[in-house]
Specification:
The chain is of the alpha/beta class. It folds into two domains: 140 residues, P-loop containing nucleotide triphosphate hydrolases (Rossmann fold); 84 residues, Rossmann fold (3-Layer(aba) Sandwich). It has nine helices and ten strands. The chain has a six-stranded mixed sheet, sandwiched between helices. The chain has a four-stranded antiparallel sheet with strand order 2-1-4-5, with helices on one face. Strand 7, helix 6 and strand 8 form a beta-alpha-beta unit. Helix 3 packs parallel to helix 5 and helix 5 runs parallel beside helix 6. It binds adenosine-5'-diphosphate and magnesium ion. Adenosine-5'-diphosphate (ADP) binds next to strand 2 and helix 1.
Length: 251
């Protein structure tokens, strides 16, 4: 269903005391496209993800997912409807194996403990964990403790934890932050591959990666959408060049 908005962000504001972290964000995310959100540190990108996923209530505005209003719905309900995200801060359980991490994440999709469904839930979680190990190329590492993984493989596992809830839309917050070139390449290739079967919105600092991987780019600055368009359109946008590209604050 390419071309349909899977996510509609309609005038979202978020104030922290006197600070307007989001000052009225309007953006649609279309299904079938890999969308990137770029913008300088403090632009409000992570806050926008926090509002979309129900972690933070917005001060104003609505969010619709698959045509339904999800504003102010609880995190677990939004997750159950098929919206998943990774965090900018890593969240794997270091003391567990790769498969155990994925299994727990798959179980969590089912929410509250249901004694009579326990066995079938557990079986489903096993299958999801095994499939994800395979898909992410983590099969050989399935029984390794997460603590022993390389940085790149941890990033893949993070993505796996979000995928374990079997989402329709996946939000990735700076998934390649802090990686070297080889790990970046591995992770970006996997994200591109995943985008064939699932809708993805990625917040990314590395502008070359963004131009390379995305179909659609949303540029944020000072809590608002400054521009949006294809990579070619964004490259040639004068406002974007002034506000962002000319002033590369690559941290
Ligand atoms: N929980 C919070 N409490 C207060 N201020 C916050 C909070 N979260 C984010 N901010 C502020 O909101 C602004 C946007 O932050 P953020 O969304 O993290 O930006 P980005 O992800 O684009 O770097 C920043 O000025 C940040 O300090
Ligand atoms: Mg951020």
């Amino acid at each position: 269903m390419s071309g349909q908005p899977i996510l509609e962000i309609d005038g979202i504001e978020k104030h922290f005391g006197g600070l307007a972290a989001l000052g009225g964000v309007y953006a649609n995310v279309e299904s079938g496209k890999l969308t990137a959100i770029i913008g300088p540190n403090g632009a409000g990108k992570t806050t926008l993800f926090n509002v979309i996923t129900g972690l933070l209530p917005p001060s104003a505005g609505r969010v619709r997912f698959l045509g339904e209003d999800i504003t102010d719905r609880p995190v677990h309900e939004i997750s159950r409807r098929g919206l998943a995200r990774t965090l900018q801060i890593k969240s794997v359980f270091n003391g567990m194996t790769v498969r155990e991490n994925l299994w727990i994440a798959a179980q969590s999709r089912d929410g509250v403990f249901k004694p009579f469904q326990r066995a079938s839930q557990s079986k489903r979680a096993n299958r999801v964990a095994d499939d994800l190990c395979e898909e992410l190329g983590l099969g050989p590492l399935a029984d390794q403790q997460a603590a022993n993984l390389s940085y790149g493989d941890i990033a893949l596992l993070e993505i796996g934890l979000a995928l374990a809830t079997e989402p329709k839309l996946l939000l990735l917050d700076e998934p390649i932050c802090g990686m070297g070139p080889a790990e970046t390449e591995q992770t970006v290739a996997k994200i591109r591959e995943l985008s064939q079967r699932i809708d993805i919105v990625i917040i990314e600092h590395d502008i070359e990666v963004v131009f390379d991987v995305s179909d659609e780019i949303i540029v944020m600055n000072l809590g608002k959408v400054l521009a949006r368009g294809t990579p070619d359109e964004i490259k040639s946008d004068a406002d974007v060049r002034t506000a962002y590209l000319g002033d590369d604050d690559d941290a």
